[in-house]
Amino acid sequence: MQDEHRQANRAMWDDRTGIHLESTFYDVDGWLARAPGPRPREVDALGEVAGLRLVHLQCHFGLDTLTFARVGAQVTGVDFSLPAITAARDLARRAGLSERATFVQSDVYDATTALGGATFDIVYVSLGALCWLPDVDRWAGVVSDLLAPGGRLYLHDVHPAAWALADDDVRFAYTYYQETGPFVEDSETTYTDSTRPIEHTRSYEWNHSLGEIVTALLARGLRITGLTEHDWTPWQRWPFLVEVDRHRWTTPPGMPRLPLTFTVLADRVLPPEGA
Fold first, then answer.
1. CA 140 to CA 118: how far, in whole Å?
2. Which residue(s) pair with 12 in the sheet?
3. What is the pTM for the complete model shown?
């Protein structure tokens, strides 16, 4: 059954890739013209990354991955969608970053093998990643395997409380916790501004509570160095959210703030001297 879920999700993401490349949400031409580096919050968390090895799990077509290559990191992006990986390689070429960027097609659970046992200074996971995975503990094992001793994890994702809220109101409608069975959705469109329909409409998702995520990382030997819950999200999750900056939506004045995204920072502890 897991293979069925994975195949359906991959087909859906294959369909989304072409739409996303043309969307104003991602604004690929604008991105190429602006040539941005990492976001300020990422710079604050990770500091100088020039010369470091960074792997981006579930990288889609590589926009976030390549921002780190632009400031000198040697980056590797991993995604299970071949159209996305093909687009990422082309984007790296167009941005003049091919020498510092490698993109590999692989399911995230198979990333350790697909990357030949390589380890990295930074494992980077960006928004909309964990909900596609049925088992957060298995994911944490991959993160641990990919981190070199002293390496760091940067995870920024949708808050599980926001994921569990209804699509039309601030009330719990879905599970907050990881369940055996997935949440099944059929949607003819994607989350960007395009209304172009997709062919493979069915997808399967799983929520993971903050406690489950943090505990899974701790169990794999990582040390949590930061956990921040944010009152903003990069897209308009509900019609009542207001945009206070580009790709930064939050609740309007007079409405209680909600946990919309979160960031976890962690590192793989160095072995004792002489060990």
1. 16
2. none
3. 0.95
